[in-house]
């Protein structure tokens, strides 16, 4: 575990704190032809090697640095817009290489894969993973279908009003449900109360509308958000309780 944490610390430092903006821009423009890509890889190797302190075994960190560079090249090639999906995929790939390097350093590569396989293929793990995934997109679609009549009513009241950020509601809902799912699994029900209290801070202030938004719209939009939130919370709690019953 110590080796993993040291390599993870090196990754965080080099990728997020010690990588100048100039390097990032140049890498995006020139990809593998950028000299800063290789400076970055060398820095990954150097910091990982120094933090580990295993002076007689440099090969694992050299391989880790090379893998880091290859991952960065793939990300630069396919991620032209800097999307969240590619950012997560990039960091997951780095994390996997760090885990593999740790297993090589500790001579536990075979045992590590067997441990992971054993952990994955257990009812508890499968139930938690399935429940967490169910709490995200599937419930978003369900709540969207259930609240569709009220959404259409709001559109009729103010057809030209666009007072929502694109996909913000969906991401807020998924974040809330994931938090609630975790809170229920660890039996921290009081934390759900704090989450509800934080959500209650959301208000629609007609004084800032400049007379463009009908008062009825503001009132009904508040009710719409409240109904959607309660539906979302109820589904997340139900899924989490079902998961707890399975293990």
Q: Total helix count? A: 12
Cα-atom radius of gyration: 24 Å
Structural class determined from secondary elements: mainly alpha
Overall pLDDT metric = 84
H/E element string? HHHHHHHHHHHH
For the report, how would you describe the main beta sheet?
Answer: none
Catalogue the unreliable spans: 204-210
Total beta-strand segments: 0
In percent, how helical is the residue content? over 70%
Query: End-to-end span in angstroms?
Result: 27 Å
Q: State which percent range the strand residues make up.
A: under 5%
Query: What form results from the Cα inertia axes?
Result: globular
Short description, anyone?
With 247 residues, the chain is mostly helical.
Question: Would you write up a description of this structure?
Answer:
Helix 1 runs antiparallel to helix 5, helix 2 crosses helix 3 and helix 9 packs antiparallel against helix 12. About 3% of the residues have low confidence. The chain is built from twelve helices and no strands. With 247 residues, it is an all-alpha fold.
Strand and helix map with partners:
Elements: H1 2-17, H2 21-30, H3 35-52, H4 59-78, H5 84-105, H6 109-120, H7 123-135, H8 137-146, H9 148-157, H10 168-185, H11 189-199, H12 215-246
Structure keywords:
single chain; mainly alpha; 247 residues; 12 helices; 78% helix
